[in-house]
Amino acid sequence: MLSLFIMSVSIAFTINFTPLYMFDIDYLNITDYVNISKEQIILNYRILLDYLNIPWITDLAMPDFPSSERGLFHFYEVKRLFMFNYLILAAAGSGTYFFMRYIKSRNLYKSLLIYFKNGIFLSLTVIVGILISFDSLFLLFHQSFFNNDAWLFNPTTDPIILVLPAEFFMHSFLLAFGLVEILLITGYVLTKRKTRDISLLSKKKELGKQVGFEKEISTKIN
User: Fold this and answer.
1) How many separate helices (H) and strands (E) can be counted in the chain?
2) Which helix (H) or strand (E) holds 148?
3) What are residue 62's phi and psi, to 5 degrees?
4) Which residues, other chains included, contact 221 with Cβ-Cβ below 8 Å and sequence gap of 6+?
5) 114-154 pLDDT per residue, tens
6) Which stretches does DSSP call E strand in the chain?
């Protein structure tokens, strides 16, 4: 449950973090591939994001980028994934709240430390994999979440692909898993501090009991 929450939070943040795309427009020289300004590209990108993020927006019409039926169908499938992620975020958020209460009530922070350690290693492995072989992972992602090849856009019929280069998606994946790594490290540090505080409190209680016992014995002797 905690893993789903961390992952869905990171995805939700990444897909709505427009500064990344604004940066990439300049960094990847995206304006060189189309005959419109950066401001117009951003306007069309925001329209696309609104369609993907807002349930009651059912039609996608970008003023500077016509779309084929095939392209629109793919964006519809992407919209469903977005909605599914938000549903997971809400459910996992509630579940995580009760899970952490359970951890606290049973004092299972040491087990939580193991989870964070393994998660840190796993997410770091994914980040390295993205850096080494993003194309293969990107293909695997589409094969896993889509049962068709509608995601293979033709620039002639779906020119939006010209302003959504693979490098941008790689940066998005790196941001998402980078956030996962940060959240896991933060969780580890906070949990480590909590276990230390509990350990110190336990030692103080034991010391207090021992001092009290010694005083009781001394009183009886005297």
Assistant:
1) 6, 0
2) none
3) -90, 125
4) none
5) 999 999 999 999 999 999 999 999 999 999 999 999 999 99
6) none
Give the DSSP H/E element, type plus range, for residue 4: helix 2-15
What is the identity of the amino acid at 161?
Answer: I
Which residues on adjacent β-strands are paired with residue 65?
62
What sign results for the dihedral spanned by CA atoms 46, 52, 54, 58?
Answer: positive
Return the CA Rg of the chain: 25
Contact 63, 44 (CB under 8 A): yes
SS3 state of residue 178: helix
Are 221 and 157 in contact by the 8 Å Cβ rule? The answer is: no
Measured CA angle at 214 (ends 211, 217), to 5 deg: 150
Place of tokens 């996608």: 60
What is d(CA 105, CA 152) in angstroms, rounded to the nearest whole number? Answer: 50
Q: How far apart are the first and last CA of the chain?
A: 59
Angle between helices 166-221 and 2-15 (to 10 degrees): 140
| Eight-state DSSP code of residue 28 | T
Over residues 18-61, the pLDDT tens digits come to 999 999 999 999 999 999 999 999 999 999 999 999 999 999 99
Q: By residue range, what is the domain housing residue 35?
A: 2-221
| Nearest alpha carbon to residue 115 among 13, 196, 174, 183 | 183
Provide the number of structural domains found in the chain: 1
Residue 90 identity: A
